[in-house]
Amino acid sequence: MADLQHELHPFTEAGELDDLAESLPDPFEEPYTPVTDPDGTPLERAHALLAAHPVADGYSGLPWALRHRPWCDLELGESAVDTDVPRLREGRVGALLCSLHLPEGLDGDRAVGATLEQLDLVKTVVRRHPEGLRMACTAGETTDARNCGRIAVMLGPAGAAALGDSLGILRSLSALGLRVLTLSGVSWAGEAGLTRFGEEILREMNRLGVVADLSGASEETIRRALALSRTPVVCTRSAARALRPHPANLPDDLLTELGAAKGLCMVPLTAEQTGTTVRDVADHLDRVRTLAGPQCVGLSGTFDAGTAHPQELGDASCYPNLIAELLQRDWSEPDLALLTWGNVQRVLRGADFTARAAQLRREPSTARITDLDG
């Protein structure tokens, strides 16, 4: 039962680590140098800003969309999907989180196998498009890819069912490059919140540097994860429930709590969750920024996920339209730089830092669900 010692003896170094994390340099603490011409049109200014601070897109459904199209050419352009290299470049996307989510009904070994197949497909697609795409796991690797003129591709979010209730599978997926895991749809992360095994999963995610995604999780799971996680959490597809009563959207109190915990709410560009126009999406971004803070809001295109998109935001090339709308609403350039690129970098850096520290003090957990949840 050595694995239960973590619960019985809280981290003695937690305060020290938090102080050290706070002391790390942040590029946005320096005076911001404007990158756009104040006399330019909003769209011209949007293109200029995105050239310096590209979009880190928090959710792409491309892997599932490509499962029957293994020989597509994303570098020349692929009309069968919403996402290809030309449109990513036109939209000034610098990094892309590729969802490994599965259709409902897949669980157990089938979920594990299907997740591994999607993970392999992403890596295969990236290898076949080396001039446009590059795999990345860390904040540094995403920046390196951008500096080399490539679009960084990261793995995740995956569904919690992909673990098959096994910490060993979590470690294996992490070793293969998984960066984000959604905590919902399983017995240990349900309506009642995280069970003891669910809490152990989250601790092991912190130790590995796998970020917790809470979109679609119950409010009890979200609150427990916010309290327990030593690294920032994300909601990869959540907007403001006060503006659109979708179950994956967050109420105002949870948006405030997410901001206090320095988490990240990534607003999806879907008609179902945010509305049918670019102005509707901007309304959600305004509200999330007001409640959670400018350092806690990001973007998720949610392209190729089988959902309808607002006008002027139909595919991955359309991000400048949204940034132009926000510029007209007097969003500052520093806040926009955080929205598009900086906030995702902060979360990835925080996850990497926490993982390095945790691995020095904690061995891999060998707990099983029967040990903790009976």
TrEMBL record:
<dbReference type="InterPro" id="IPR032466">
    <property type="entry name" value="Metal_Hydrolase"/>
</dbReference>
<dbReference type="InterPro" id="IPR008257">
    <property type="entry name" value="Pept_M19"/>
</dbReference>
<dbReference type="GO" id="GO:0016805">
    <property type="term" value="F:dipeptidase activity"/>
</dbReference>
<feature type="region of interest" description="Disordered">
    <location>
        <begin position="22"/>
        <end position="41"/>
    </location>
</feature>
<protein>
    <submittedName>
        <fullName>Dipeptidase</fullName>
        <ecNumber>3.4.13.19</ecNumber>
    </submittedName>
</protein>
<dbReference type="Pfam" id="PF01244">
    <property type="entry name" value="Peptidase_M19"/>
</dbReference>
<keyword id="KW-0645">Protease</keyword>
<keyword id="KW-0224">Dipeptidase</keyword>
<keyword id="KW-0378">Hydrolase</keyword>
